[in-house]
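User: Fold both of these, please.

Assistant: Here is the first one.
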Amino acid sequence: MKKIFICVLTLIGINQLKAQDITGSWRGALPVGNKSLQIIFNINKKADNTFNATFDSPDQKAFGLPCNKTSVIKDSLFVEIAMIGGSYKGVWNGKDSISGTFRQGSSNLTLKLKLMLRPQTPKPPFNYFSEEVEYDNADKSLHYGATFTRPNGSGKYPAVIIITGSGTQDRDGTLFGHKLYWVLADYLTKNGIAVLRVDDRGAGKSSLGSNSKNVTSLDFSYDVETSLNYLETRGDVDKKHLGLIGHSEGGIIAPMVAARRKDVSFIVMWGGPEVGGAQINTEQNAYQLRKSGVDSLAADAFSNLHNQILALFTTAENQEALDKQISLVFDSWKKAQSQKTLDALYVKDNSIVGQDIFSMYHGMYNIPWMRFFVTYKPEQDLSKVKCSVLAINGEKDTQVDAKSNLSLIKEILTKSRNKHFEVKPLPGLNHLLQTAQTGDLSEYETIEETMSPAAMKIISDWIKIHTK
């Protein structure tokens, strides 16, 4: 789900090292005080055999940050990090590690990078057509960078747009070295389906726009419409079979677009939070509380309070009005709790779980994306969708509960008399559709599989049936 990403480093891309290939994701730990800051460099080869890269800072929940420029002499790599006045100089062993020094100001820190194994990441040469494309929205206020892939040949192909999950993501969905959307696009293209995967605003070659602090999921839905308009200009696309695959937040954006556009012939909702952002956020917080050792009774009590306060976001006209309503709700809630529950949640005066309750909710209320997310009712758009719908969810998903969301999707589409939908829970898979043990976010990095082949086959087979 969407998180607020803070960019602390801007890396600079990578040129070719000798004739060998250092593409992949490289992870290291940078010592910061008594802790360490995990960093990942994602290196990709371009068509001209030079390299570019993106940067992840998982501890700060920042992924897919664009990189700019580097210099390489033989096995020596020098990276200038202009934004922070730092640099990295390392030596590649030709296989699986880069050893070097990170410099910032007067600090010189040893930094060793290790190659992360991601066996599903596509490798050239590709047995299909691939093109880097760029286009603008109608008023030229936004520019988009994307990759379009289709089978070889001169025909017209059914086409899908992959709508990313939350957070600023590049077109490949790079996360902990996984290229989630690229792996899916590669599979679909090999199975006869054209795919457009697009950089989010502010990632890769897509511009940030002039109103970046105020954008919401609704704004992102208009980005998808721009991409649909682009696809319809191509002579190699079957305009009667245009679809959307929405992951996580993208799973509620896809129905927004399909409710407005009759040219969308099918959508795939992958881990879509149909129960709404308030319930999703509450469930995620409760999960983290239980994971940290808070007992279920106290976690449930927090959920009750959290739900009540998030409901206030709909009617509160400003922060001052919100605070007055929070005070009433919090005081009433606090009186109803046992001392054991209050102690478990560290409640003292106007605090809960160690935070000032007012500043905690100010932080959410004052972010337009979050305020929209917790007040938007996804069923309003989904009930208007008449095209074919596939809704899938990993049963081990700890970010978007499979049972509650899939059952609601089924209920809405049945009630709205959509005649062409399928709801399918996927056993053993997490939010990314990786084969998982627990489904917890901490597993994403450790699992070598980027996406379950069985899940990709389900998506591909369903699309082929509905684009005949």
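And the second sequence with its predicted structure:
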Amino acid sequence: MIIRKGTISDLDKLEDLYNDLNDYLNDNTNYPGWIKHVYPIRKTAEEGINEETLFVLEADNNIMGSIILNHKPEDAYHQAKWKVDTDYENIIVVHTLVTNPNFMKQGIGSRLMDFTRQYAISLNMRSIRLDVSINNTAAIALYEKHNYEYIGTVDLGLGYEHLKWFRLYEYVL
């Protein structure tokens, strides 16, 4: 398994991954509350690739998971009292952590979170931040397992009642 920056040639596979994952979540428990054709979508991957912030975990020509790491907080992040007081140029923000449904329960999320920490350290970042729906108990458990600290709960203003409240987490480097 390798983790590398996503490329335009990955775009079709990433769109399929997002659609397959949303179908899987729709048929099972949709912890993140994602909506097919709303989020995540091809444009999500395309923007991450163009900004060179999307990474894929790949093995045997299969994209097993993906993550977007940038310096762009949601507006509601400014309501929180974070552990580290610095500009976002010194902070990595985690977005769109996805696991291919065919590879669930194989540690893909943990590998991507370990990569995030190493990547942030290599860039001399001060912390890593993320948000997660209060209903996404699987992701909350993953982040807490990786020692992310709960900061607070905010409304991200997404306009969906089932996606109103999000827990904020920070990992201080």
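Strands lie at 2-5, 54-59, 62-70, 91-99, 127-133, 149-155, 165-172.
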